[in-house]
Structure of Amine oxidase domain-containing protein:
Amino acid sequence: MFGDARVIVVGGGIAGIAAATRLIENGFDNVTILEAGNRLGGRINTVPFGETCVDLGAHWVHGEKDNPVFSLASPLGLLESSRDLENMRFVLSDGSHLTLDAGLRLFERCSIVLDDLTALKEFRGSVADYLRSRYDELLQDVELSPDDSKAFFDWMSRFECSIEGCNSLDEASATGLASYKQCDGDPVICWKKGGYSTLIDILLSREIDLGTKTRLNSVVTHVDWSGTDTDGGNVKLRCADGSEHYADHIVLTVSLGVLKQDSIAFKPPLPANKVNAIKGLEIGTVNKIYLYYENQWWPDDCSGFSFLYKDKNSSEKKSERSWTDEVIGFYAEKNSPRVLCGWVVGEAARNVEKLTDSEVAEACTNLLRTFVGHEFSVPQPAAIVRSNWFSNPHFRGSYSFRSMHTEEMKTSASDLAEPLVNNKGLQVLLFAGEATHECFYSTVHGAMESGWREADRIINMYTK
Ligand SMILES: Cc1cc2nc3c(=O)[nH]c(=O)nc-3n(C[C@H](O)[C@H](O)[C@H](O)COP(=O)(O)OP(=O)(O)OC[C@H]3O[C@@H](n4cnc5c(N)ncnc54)[C@H](O)[C@@H]3O)c2cc1C
C-alpha cells in the first residue's frame, strides 16, 4: 500500500522490531532494520546455559494491566509468577542472618514507601534521602540491631538501584521516580521456558519475515537529514562498513548510552533540546552473573541469598569498596535448574566487566562462602556466563532512569522522543527506545510501545 515510502529502523532491539513489524503489517513494504550487532533482540538476550537458557538482559514482565507484553504472552500460556519472597534469606557478612519475619517486613515496608507516588512527587531530593527520611518509621517494631538495620538499608539501596537502573540512589531523583508507572498486577512474572526472546518469536510469528529486511553487523555512524544528496529521499545513513542507505524516514532506537557516547554524527547537528535530553536523562549499569553447578547445594525451599554487608556501609569507606562488597545477592533461577543469578549495579557492575570469567567465578565462590559457607558447602561453579552491558559499545549501559541532573536540566523523555522535522516540514528523524517512554522507560513494554508509537506516527502521515 505504501510501497514507495522508505523507512529505515536503526537498531533491532524490541523497539526496532515493534516499529518494523507494525509498519509492515500496515502495508509499508520498504522497511529495513540496520542492526549493529550480529543478532536481533538488543537488551533482550536469551542465551543457552546449563540445561536450559538464561537472560542476560530483560528478565521479568513487570505487571499485568496495560502491559502489552503481558497481553501478548499471557493468553498463550507462556508466563508464570516468579514471586517467591518468603523463601529468600537475608544473610550477613559475619555469617549471621536476619529472621525471615524482620527481613520480609522491612523489605515490604520499604517497597511500599518507594511506591508512594504522592510522597515521592513532593520530595525535593534524591531517592536515597527520601528513603532515609522515612527509614526510622519503617523500623518500628522490627527487631534489628543498629548495625543490622544499617546493613539492611545499604542492601535495600542497592536492590532499588537494580530496579531503577541507577548507579546509586544518591543520584536518582525522588520526583523523577514518581514519573515511572508500575502496571498493576504481579510485578515479577517470568517466561515458563525459552526466556525473554520468546517475545520476539511472538512478534515475528505473524508471517513477517524480518530476515530479508534486516542487515546485521551494520553500525550506523552518520545520519544526514539535511535533505541534500539523499537520492530523492530525506535522509542518508552511512555505516561503519562504508555502506550508504537512503530513506524517507528514520526510526532511531539506539540506547541512551549510545546517544551519549556521540558515536553517531548528525548533519545538521541535533537541536539543543534534543542534546539537552541526551545529556540530562541518565542510564546506569546493572549486570548479572549466572553460575551453574553440577549439583544444587542450596535447599529447595531457598529462593536465594540477599547479601547484607556489615561495617562496609559508611560513606567514607565507599570509595574503597570492591565490587565484591556490592553484590546484591544470588538467587535461584526458577526455570533453570542448578543455576544461581547474582546481581550487581553501578560502578561495581562496570568493574566486574574488566575481569575474566575465572576471576569472577572465583570471587563469587569466595563471596558465597563468606555469607553461607558455615551452613552449606559451596563448590566452584561448573560454568559461568555474565553480561557486559556497559563495555559493549552498542549499549553503554543497562536502562535509563531520572537523576537529580535530569531535574536540573529540566528535560524529559518527551524531549528525547520528539521527532525532528526537516526544512520541508517533514518529520524525518523519529526516536524510539525505552528511554523515550514517558512512564514505562527502562522496560521492555515501554520500548515496545515506543516502537509502535513511532510506526503509528509514520502510518498517520501517509493515511491522513
Ligand atoms: C540486565 C538487564 C535487566 C533488565 N531487566 C528487565 C526486566 O526484568 N523487565 C523489563 O521489562 N525490562 C528489563 N530490562 C530493560 C529492557 O531490556 C530494555 O528496556 C529494552 O530491551 C530496550 O529495548 P530497546 O529496543 O529500546 O533498546 P535496545 O534493546 O538497546 O535496542 C537497540 C539496538 O540498537 C543497536 N544499535 C546500537 N547502536 C547502533 C548503531 N550505531 N547502528 C545500528 N544499531 C545500533 C543495538 O545493538 C541494539 O540491538 C533489562 C535490561 C537489562 C540490561
Summary: The chain has a mean pLDDT of 94. The longest strand covers residues 286-292.
